[in-house]
Amino acid sequence: MSDTAHTLTGRIDGDVAPARVRDYIDLLKPRVMSLVVFTGWIGVVIAPVHVHPFKTLLAVIAIALGSGAAGCINMWYERDLDALMARTRNRPLPAGRVAPDDALGLGVLLSVFSVLLMAVSTNLVAAALLAVAILFYVFIYTIWLKRRTPQNIVIGGAAGAFPPMIGWAAATGDVSSVGIALFLLVFLWTPPHFWALALYRSEDYRRAGVPMLPVVAGPRETKCQMVIYTLLLLPVAIAPTLLGAVGWVYGTVALALSLGFIGHAIAVWRTADDETAFGAARKMFRYSLIYLAALFAALPVDLVVSRIAG
């Protein structure tokens, strides 16, 4: 299919080239969305109530659209920073393939629609949590924290921790201790995950003036904080088992994966505070993605095994 067939707007505003479908999809941060959708879906399926598959689908779509909306507004607001960083300079806005007003309009439209869809298809508790997650990511993390404090990831990480709790609320209509445990799991995972990336991308953040912890406090302090957070994460990771939501199939997997995460953090901590740490940091970043995905995948697997065994 030609570029003309993909064009969504025929307008060229200044140096903004015609946008293609792919550019608008990229505005929604599909890689981030995939993890958000997965954790949100797990929150629905492990809830102790039966949820109709169509209702589950609508809840997951609402979570996906809400995540994409927040990502879109984030890209609109941070287009100046993205233009300065090698990792992000080819995104649709800094590359001039999408007009800023179009990106903002899309983000606001999807935000409203996602919350309304959640309210109509599930319940007001889940819709309210989704609205809070979007607003938190846009106003607290993107606008307030990211350019002002090295704690941007620590506090702002709450936005990405909402999806499994939203999924749980979509199924049950409330927020229980299990839903909170799932929230805390992602919340505590986020800092060491992003700091591993920030260690080997620190020059990008320094160039853009973003006060990430490695830039402000240095590699040594960042590595210490990464070890601390992975240690704090271990009891939270096995909390669903301790709370009785799942059994020890999940608990064993969570314990093993968490010990591996701690091991990666210690390996990064033991490296020198220069480029020799980059290899270990890259490995930890990749492991962190596998860690969270495998942890959440183990939750429904545990339930299936328990039903077969029982």
From TrEMBL:
Its EC number is 2.5.1.141. InterPro entries: Protohaem_IX_farnesylTrfase, UbiA_prenyltransferase, UbiA_prenylTrfase_CS. It is an enzyme of class 2 (transferase). Pathway: Porphyrin-containing compound metabolism; heme O biosynthesis; heme O from protoheme: step 1/1. The chain crosses the membrane at residues 32-51, 57-77, 98-118, 124-145, 152-171, 177-200, 226-243, 249-269, 289-309. It is found in: Cell membrane. It is a multi-pass membrane protein. It catalyses: heme b + (2E,6E)-farnesyl diphosphate + H2O = Fe(II)-heme o + diphosphate. Coiled coil: none annotated. Keywords: Cell membrane, Heme biosynthesis, Membrane, Transferase, Transmembrane, Transmembrane helix. Converts heme B (protoheme IX) to heme O by substitution of the vinyl group on carbon 2 of heme B porphyrin ring with a hydroxyethyl farnesyl side group. Belongs to the UbiA prenyltransferase family. Protoheme IX farnesyltransferase subfamily. Carbon 2 of the heme B porphyrin ring is defined according to the Fischer nomenclature. This is Protoheme IX farnesyltransferase. The lineage of its organism: Bacteria, Pseudomonadati, Pseudomonadota, Alphaproteobacteria, Hyphomicrobiales.
